[in-house]
Write a structure and sequence with these properties.
Distance between the termini: 46 Å
Helix content: 10-25%
Protein name: RHS repeat-associated core domain protein
Number of helices: 4
InterPro entries: DUF4329, Rhs_assc_core, T6SS_VgrG/RHS
Strand content: 25-35%
Length: 355
């Protein structure tokens, strides 16, 4: 992460980070004006005064007349419209695929593409993704990927494998909801590492499709769709853009004495056998299970997933951690028209798990 950005006229932008890389402060020295922004959790201070309180759905301005402001997002989590608590439209944004803003009305707040903070001062126009900054004009990150060794075939500066229509990047280290994997099992394990902790903490089930990723008709690997959530059952989210479904994965939430959560249910098995594709289950004990609909056998892929400390059959000491709400939501609010992706009607219907 950069510590200082210097401009030819002497202006500077300096950054201060915590030990874990979290941005704590930004200081803009533009000409004779100095603006200090402090980031304290979800509270933003400007020059020592509280300015914004960030929420899952928008923000509250803490200066002047305090009121709620809400984001209307598209299917990729881009903030397209900002409205206040009275329903008045304050800002609209239109984006190029790689995040450049080509049309806007109003400029009331800095969180734009993928919900990331855009720094426009002095013409910088960089998005802060957490692990790295991103230049939408170039379609490239400004520094190399901390996880570059996972992607030998791609530049470490690449954004979303050069496919921002299909993928998003939650933090500058991986395009989400899943990376590109060589096998379905590898994709399923990553899903379990990513979602099982949240499923346990939230006491909610989560479910996704595993799908093929192709480029120019050739199979490049496998990934998974963003997870849907449900209390005692969950609908498996569909592959994006009509990609070919090749498997399903879901979780059973926390260790619940009223339910048998560490193995496939009869409904799980019935669904998997109907799809004729392998199904995976992340359990509160920390197992990733695989059910083969042809052999009708269940096997353990790994026992290294985040697990529930109160599960008497716990397999490891990997404590569960939640994920930011915007990553785990089952659906972005679809209040803006989405492009026609020519997805067959048969694939638009969600298949529900019943337990």
């Amino acid at each position: 992460m950069p510590s200082t950005v210097s401009f030819s006229d002497g202006s500077t932008i300096t950054y201060t980070y915590g030990a874990d890389g979290t941005k704590l402060r930004t200081v803009h020295k533009i000409g004779s004006t100095t603006t200090t922004t402090d980031y304290c959790g979800n509270v933003i201070y400007e020059n020592g005064t509280q300015k914004l309180l960030l929420t899952e759905e928008g923000y509250i301005n803490l200066t002047g007349t305090q009121q709620y402001h809400y984001y209307l997002k598209d299917h990729q989590g881009n903030n397209r419209v900002v409205i206040n608590q009275s329903g008045t439209v304050e800002e609209t944004n239109h984006y190029y695929p790689f995040g450049g803003v080509f049309g806007t009305t109003g400029n009331t707040q800095p969180y734009k593409y993928n919900g990331k903070e855009l720094d426009t001062k002095q013409g910088l126009n960089w998005y802060d993704y957490g692990a790295r900054h991103y230049d939408a004009a170039l379609g490239r990150f400004t520094t190399n990927d901390p996880l570059a060794e996972k992607y030998y075939s791609m530049s470490p500066y690449t954004y979303c494998a050069d496919n921002p229509v299909k993928f998003i990047d939650p933090n500058g280290m991986e395009y989400a909801p899943g990376d590109l994997f060589k096998t379905k099992r590898a994709a399923a394990k990553d899903w379990g590492m990513y979602y099982n902790g949240a499923s346990i903490i939230r006491k909610r089930e989560m479910g996704s499709s595993i799908y093929e990723v192709k480029q120019k008709g050739k199979l490049k690997g496998y990934s998974y769709s963003a997870a849907n959530e449900g209390e005692h059952s969950v609908s498996i989210s569909l592959p994006p853009n009509g990609e070919r479904f090749v498997g399903s994965i879901h979780s059973h939430g926390d260790a619940d004495a009223e339910h048998i959560n560490n193995k496939f249910s009869k409904a799980d098995i019935k669904y998997i056998e109907k799809t004729k594709e392998n199904g995976y289950l992340a359990t509160p004990s920390g197992d990733l299970l695989e059910y083969n609909p042809y052999s009708k056998k269940t096997s353990i892929v790994t026992s290294d997933l985040p697990s529930d400390p109160k599960d008497p059959k716990r397999k490891n000491n990997i404590n569960p951690k939640d994920i930011p709400a915007e990553k785990g939501k089952q659906r972005m609010k679809e209040l803006l028209q989405k492009p026609d992706l020519n997805i067959p009607v048969s694939q638009r219907e969600h298949i529900h798990w019943v337990f």
